[in-house]
Design brief:
alpha/beta, elongated, 5-stranded mixed β-sheet, 326 residues, 15 helices, 3-stranded mixed β-sheet, single chain
């Protein structure tokens, strides 16, 4: 089971951690923003609705949860903010039980973690369709996914890649055969031992990295080591992490599509969706704008610059014209 991790505090330090601490309470706090419809929410289709939004407790998912809440607020709803719940299971249970109405979830997490499938579906659309269809039985409605794909990857610093010209994981496999000593990889303990982590990747690509060349460490340290140290040529990263751009890293293409797709998509408690089907028209345009690159920029504002996830979400929605200040 892939755990979705907290990214705050690893690169952004205490400022980022404090920003998250005030973002959402388990008991919930009313969203008090004075926002009005922009390109979505015209006619205020949620007037009179009382809706609760939730999220897991890492920066990206909190930002996405705040986006849903702000869109609902602009469309006329009273919104209770229950973002920043601890771990995947808490937020998932809130949606299933109807304690919360909507959040952004990840297709790979849905398919593997919640629905219990061992093998991911390589095609992103087919995986979303499979999750959508099966999760209906749990009272969860999946709306169309974004191209934002928060999955595993290996990254290299641009300055080191001047020498090696690596573009894909197949290039890494070729380098490992040609010059085994050159390939050093920094990874988390879990990634180092999981079948959908390093061992499975090595098998899929026919590469063998000497055990002495695999260095295990905390996720946050990996980015710094790859960027500034000579001890790691490559590092395990998440594709939407803001530190990729901030630390001038290049993500290598998973050309054999080994890693599962973790596309973000809104999920809604089905009874809520049946009562307010307008939610789809409110969130679909937002999801269409959410890409991996957009997520990197937004995540960096929180994890690198220490900004408040709520304000990051609000600024982006206003910038894109989805909502306006009241």
């Amino acid at each position: 089971m892939r755990a979705r991790r907290v990214r705050v505090g690893l690169a952004g330090g205490l400022v980022g951690a404090l920003a998250l601490a005030g973002c959402g309470l388990k008991s919930g706090s009313p969203m008090a923003d004075d926002v009005v419809p922009g390109s979505v929410g015209r006619g205020r289709p949620l007037d009179g609705a009382s809706l609760t939004v939730t999220s897991k407790n890492f920066s990206e998912n909190i930002i996405l949860g705040q986006m849903i809440g702000l869109v609902f607020k602009a469309a006329g709803a009273e919104v209770l903010d229950r973002t920043n719940l601890p771990g995947s299971i808490s937020a998932r249970e809130a949606i299933v039980k109807g304690d919360a109405d909507a959040m952004y979830e990840y297709t790979g997490t849905g398919w593997i973690t919640y629905l219990g499938h061992a093998k991911p579906i390589p095609d992103p659309l087919k995986q979303w369709e499979a999750v959508r269809d099966e999760d209906r039985n749990n009272g969860v409605t999946w709306l169309p996914q974004s191209t934002l794909n928060n999955t595993y990857a290996l990254a290299i610093s641009r300055k080191n890649n001047i020498k090696y010209h690596l573009r894909t994981l197949s290039d890494v496999a070729a380098l490992a055969k040609r010059n085994p000593a050159a390939v050093t990889i920094c990874v988390e303990n879990e990634f180092a031992s999981r079948d959908d982590g390093l061992p499975g990747m090595e098998k899929a690509y026919g590469m063998s990295v000497p055990a002495a060349n695999i260095k295990k460490m905390d996720a946050g340290i990996i980015y710094t080591q790859v960027s500034k140290s000579g001890s790691c040529l490559l590092g395990e990263v998440f594709t939407t992490d803001g530190r990729i751009r901030a630390m001038d890293l290049e993500v290598l293409v998973d050309d054999k599509h080994f890693f599962p797709n973790y596309n973000a998509a809104p999920v809604v408690h089905t009874r809520t969706f049946e009562k307010y089907p307008e939610i789809a028209a409110l969130l679909d345009p937002v999801s269409r704008k959410l890409t991996t690159e957009v997520a990197q920029v937004l995540n960096a504002k929180v994890d690198v610059d220490g900004e408040d996830p709520h304000e990051v979400a609000k600024d982006w929605l206003i910038q894109e014209g989805f909502i306006e200040e009241g």
